[in-house]
Predict the structure.
Amino acid sequence: MNWSRSLVLMRQNWHLLMADPAPIVLLTAMPLVMMTFLQGTGRAVLHAAGYPDASGAELVVPGMAVMFSFFGVGFIGTAFFSEHGWGTWDRLRASRAGTIEIVLGKILPSALLMFGQLVLLFAIGIGVFGMKVSGSVAGMIVMMLTCVVLLVAFSMLLTAVLKTANQLMAVVNLAAMVLAGIGGALAPVEVLPGWAQAIAPASPAYWMLKGFRAVILERGGLDATIVPAAMTLAFAAGMVVIAVWRFSVTDEKVWDN
Amino acid sequence: MLHIRGLTKAYGEHEVLRGVNLEAKAGEIVGLLGPNGAGKTTLVSIVAGLRRADAGHATVAGIDALAHPERARAVLGLAPQELGIYPVLSVEQNLGFFAELSGLTGKKLRGRVANVAEALDLTELLRQKAGTLSGGQKRRLHTAMALVNEPTVLFLDEPTVGADVRTRNQILEVVRQRAATGCAIVYTSHYLTEIEDLGATVAVLEAGRIIARGPLADLVAEHGSPALRLTFEGSAPALDGFEIAGSVATLLTPDPAHAAAMILGHLNGSTERLRSVDIVRPSLEAAYLALTGRRSNEDATAKTEEVIDELVA
């Protein structure tokens, strides 16, 4: 493992990400638009749930942030798939860079981007939508970092098992809607149908949102994030294990179908 | 500089490499020839660390490339068969990235990028996005990216596929220059004239084995059959022993001048339609075709003698 080479790879991948910033801008702008539309509903739901001072942003900001961060999973997968499409994957592997350096070089810039996306959305949530954090700010940061770890693990899993970029985008879109929806990103789990409430804990988004809710709405301290963060990390660990088991540098990936 | 011994590789039941032996000295260009599916790309991929061999040994500049691929890659350059460039980055960023990965920084890096760009006529294009280059320019950039770390062993896998004449000549010139500095080069191609132009030694790989290896002149002398070629107006007549392709009739023979003297008097009604008589000298192409089993010298000799005997009788 050579850190200076890893830094070269990270910088390269940052350049590749920034070469077409449209998806990044879209995934940041879209949740803001959704927050605008949904804040009123969120306020009504929270008032009915016993939070009379809530602005509604306390529900919709973490919900939209988590849902759209799942869409960001595509960044990492795309970083691998596009190398195959450009014919540079073998060329990269034939360079001095080792497999771990290449993988880190692909993952870390996107992880930074995902963290930045979450920070920006929560900052705008506080500054523009009037979201109040009643509990620990450190807990918020822990949950954001935990989310990024989960998303990176999910990206690795999808990159390892899927063969084409079209499959990747389809699964990412479906997963974002289903996992985040079941987890309570669109409406609190308490108002979901019974069957959805029963399976909600099987979605990592449920634990991510539970952690955010604890520190945003329920005055929770850092300790309130321990269980949600641990559960989220457990999901991440499982995903990484499968990804490592299934990932092969010699697998052919298809960028254009 | 490059030593390969007993390299084998199978994909499932299909044996792609069956005990390949190959050596390349410093400054030597090895033209690696073979039909599609012969195992050329697999061989290059294994030595470059992209695939694992099932058995065998490969050393690159004294480094065991199979046991320590990461160390071997430090002295290797590879331009894979498939074009591999970052279209969204500039030419300079493409070259700079691989130069940085090889450990170059600062002034040395910039100097190396400038040198390689100049050698392949890319200097004016350094700021241009690679995706906007023409096909030939992309091919030159693709080759340049393999040279930027100044490898001591260079693999060029069909580097001129789809290239125009100018690009082809530039790439061949750069290959000669690299060889002159002591770099051992393995150059795979289906364009046999390129191998002749490069003055390369030749290795013919077929069905996973090297079936011929040596200086080009020796291979041509041993396996390259001369031929007599007659071109007619309209379709060539059916002539015993000749291969007919449209208006051209070709006879593989060790003595085409003698065969011409014998045959020309026996064309009968076709003489008036005869437009040219060519004596085809032994070439790498002829040797290659003979070696890869489509024709053989022995067959050609026997056939010619038979035809001439018939005509004389």
Observations:
- The CA atoms of residues 51 and 123 of chain A lie 21 Å apart.
- Chain A has a mean pLDDT of 93.
- Chain A has one domain: 3-246.
- Chain A touches chain B through 21 residues (CB under 8 Å).
